[in-house]
Amino acid sequence: xxxxxxxxxxxxxxxxxxxxxxxxxxxxxxxxxxxxxxxxxxxxxxxxxxxxxxxxxxxxxxxxxxxxxxxxxxxxxxxxxxxxxxxxxxxxxxxxxxxxxxxxxxxxxxxxxxxxxxxxxxxxxxxxxxxxxxxxxxxxxxxxxxxxxxxxxxxxxxxxxxxxxxxxxxxxxxxxxxxxxxxxxxxxxxxxxxxxxxxxxxxxxxxxxxxxxxxxxxxxxxxxxxxxxxxxxxxxxxxxxxxxxxxxxxxxxxxxxxxxxxxxxxxxxxxxxxxxxxxxxxxxxxxxxxxxxxxxxxxxxxxxxxxxxxxxxxxxxxxxxxxxxxxxxxxxxxxxxxxxxxxxxxxxxxxxxxxxxxxxxxxxxxxxxxxxxxxxxxxxxxxxxxxxxxxxxxxxxxxxxxxxxxx
Length: 407
Prior knowledge:
By secondary structure, this protein is of the alpha+beta class. Helix content is 15%, strand content 29%. The chain has three domains: 9-163, no CATH class; 185-286, Immunoglobulin-like (Sandwich), CATH 2.60.40; 299-403, Immunoglobulin-like (Sandwich). A five-stranded antiparallel β-sheet has the order 15-16-17-21-20, with no helix packed on it. The longest helix is centred in the middle third of the chain and has 15 residues, at 149-163. The protein is globular, with a radius of gyration of 22 Å. It starts with 8 loop residues before the first strand and ends with a strand. Residues 1-22 form the signal peptide. Keywords: Signal.
């Protein structure tokens, strides 16, 4: 469990902090209700705030926000906020301001680990809000969450209703490449999601495509697209070849032949006629992007400044090591350490499918964060439900320093 003090909680919903309004402090839910902070879709600040309140424990003695992950590792898309405009008051020595929730930035794919109810709506609104820890405590105590995703979504809806979040607006913006193309209420309950099959392929899941939609639109398709995460933030995602599926049921699941990979995203296409289909006049609803780690952040390796993460690339299991840059002699300390790949979390430590020594992992330059270097090893093991990786100190099988949640 990591703990640190966040001087300010920042919700930054754009790539550039231009024309930022004065910072306001919100101390309780009533203060939040009486502001315009994140009040109407497609803004997602309230959902993001609700999620963060569930993650944060508050030390009332010294007003610290305690987290079970390290923001400087880049988890959930956290990154340091430079405050070039001098908006915020200075931090104490060794403390930093962080921002989170920049769903529009393809550079920070880790934000895709945020829950689907956070990613459902967003736009490019620029604003900053200063959140008092008392507000986080109040949200967490009033709307406590569990491990059930649907229940957490319902609690978030209760919170939004109290804050008077407005859901009646409709908007269409062709430049919002990874947000819903049509924002009407008709789509609010739709669920689109990508999971994994037993063979390392993408399982497409959809729910609550209402009978009204099925009757109105003659052709209802779900595509699987690949977000490329290039430097062009307005670039359209590529539809994976032959990964488009005509559906006739309001809810269902379908095993596809698309290898599981980070950046995959399901998208709903609706056509009223064959004429619309030919002219590509589309209405869209987007599901959350698959982040490669199944929305599980790196787990701390005991005794060292490093973390372990199970990752999927092209249908295969990969292991990632997050090594803090100050841990410069890690290859000496961990020279005999290794990562085992297991088909099931029930397997004994010596019953691994394959393994690799930590010192043989390759540095991934394009995903290195500000404070951590990321090393990866690609195994031949198919990513599938039940797969797990473990970090062992040496050749003795009883010294497990970290093990991931099974896939």
